[in-house]
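Notes to self after the Tuesday call (sharing in case useful).
The group wants a holo model before anyone commits to mutagenesis around the pocket. I volunteered. Ligand is oxa(dethia)-CoA. Logging inputs and output together so the record is complete.
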Amino acid sequence: MHPGAETAGLTLLRAAEAMPRSSAAAVRAVLAGIGSYLPETLVTNDDLSRTVETSDAWIRERTGIRQRYLAKPHETCAFMATRAAEAALRDAGASASDVDAVILATATPDQAFPATAVRVQAALGVRGFGFDLSAACSGFVYAVSMADALIKSGQARAVLVIGSEVYSRILNWQDRGTCVLFGDGAGAVLLRASDGSGADAGRGVLSTHLHSDGALGDILYVDGAVGQPDHPGHLIMNGKEVFRHAVTRMSETVDEALAANGLDRTAIDWLVPHQANMRIVDAIGKRLNLDDKKVVVTLDRHANTSAASIPLALSVAHAEGRLHQGQLVLLAALGGGLTWGSALIRL
Ligand code: UT7
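Result:
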């Protein structure tokens, strides 16, 4: 090691030892507002059965999906993300000037760059900074984790965390094995810093756990890119393999979140899993021995909206008056990468 570097390190260590212990509680990222946006066009299973060889019965039975919303040309990733973020700000009683950062989880950005997050930043009038995050269907959980880290490290005091997706633009509408499964939409939350005192005691993001395994990259991917004008790509999926990993990995990450916080499964008020398939959600609920009533399900009405699915589900539960301060909410997702992870939040 460079002698200077060693000296600098020791100096830092001594300075840290000399630092007085703060009596202030640790900073937490508290969920302050939730919002969402769904495209104008509702498409039922029967509608799809007129363009591809499928049926309402097959889709409902194999997935639990009844309908999805599909974006019109003006309903871009940025457009929907902005609407969802505005709704989250309204819900929090906050304004754009309160926000320090915008993190947008998406696999379907408007352009290769600039990041769609900065388009949203400009549309809202947010100062600070913004960036996109690519982790497919786990994107929102990853983005919550990044926002939590920014807040805990003091780099931001309020962060808009958004999932916005237009998968309709990357689906092969001739492939009945995939095109019936997805929908478009956006969801957003505002996370704000709190010192955990008073009414905020115990609230906030308690932990996040992130994983990826690139060796499984080929069981769910897009065979093109925004940067390839002649071939933006189509979603390709080995459904059975993804299904198997979804049940195992999401159950594992729920358990690791609980273990890290010294909690057992009965402590969960709401499990908000990534919304891909009712059979996956049921299998996870069964493995974890969770009451169905504690699992938020919206895939029947939105289908799989990838990174938007969890904030959309949160938004529905919130609008229905099911979320209350003090409740324990566990988010769990799995998506292309493979990526998976969880976030445990005390409301
Ligand atoms: O968001 C990221 C995570 N994604 C997921 O978690 C998705 C995980 N996977 C799944 O949800 C399920 O595997 C699917 C819903 C994709 C498929 O369900 P499955 O029970 O694994 O069906 P399958 O692919 O084995 O297909 C069964 C049959 C096949 O016919 P044969 O070969 O048995 O004659 C398919 O051709 O169903 C047929 N099929 C359809 N029939 C009517 C496939 N898609 C359709 C369709 N309509 N849309």
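Two things stood out.
Confidence is low (pLDDT under 50) at residues 1-23.
Residues 239-260 form the longest helix (22 residues).
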